[in-house]
Amino acid sequence: MIYKRSGLVGGSMCDTKLRLSPLAMLELIEDSASELLSALHIDGRTAMREYGAMWVFTKNTVSILRRPEWLEQFEIKSFISRHSPLRLFIDTELSSPEGEPLMRSRLEICALDLENGGIRKPGTLGFREDMEHPEPLPGTAFCRFRKEETEKLYSVTVRSTNLDFCGHTNNVEYLRFVLASFESRDLEQRGIRSIEMDYRGQSYEGDVLDIERSRQDNTDCFFITRNGQTAAACRIEWEQA
User: What is the pTM of this model?
Assistant: First the structure.
């Protein structure tokens, strides 16, 4: 199954140059993936109510081809591109109404048991192999990046408005914490070519997170740590060094 819908870039979705912001882009990806799972009746709410489990996002890689501007129309589609014994992979493409690709993403998700916290097989939450679409999107492979020598940029306390419906820090908030370390002119001038998020743990209201960074040419790697443990990592590739 391929889930599709149309949309419009609203003012609240724009950055300082009236383009679709990276934060809004991640929100579109996660919303579209959640709507796909809902259409398949294997969404997060169903997982909790019927299967005693919850879906968690573990990785997301995003390739940005062109960012649409304010009031520009777009089409978005999502589908399960493949699965492994313990994970599902959801591909999402944002395009213009004329078919111009604007962004491509691959999201990795897994299911956790609500009682013991163990990883559940997707089939125990209603997933069937015939839900998988046979043609994955190109250019959506995950990268590997390790924590090397870093510098601490700042610390942030998780507040109530940073939480998702499960009571954890919302995945998009980690990118917000990363981007907040830049001045707006840096984001405007350099431009983002790709983003990869690696969600390695969970954080909660009241937790103090340290934002650390390592730099290599036109790539920055960020590590958001909680009590010395990495809760999330982020890799940003810039258009300009």
Answer: 0.95
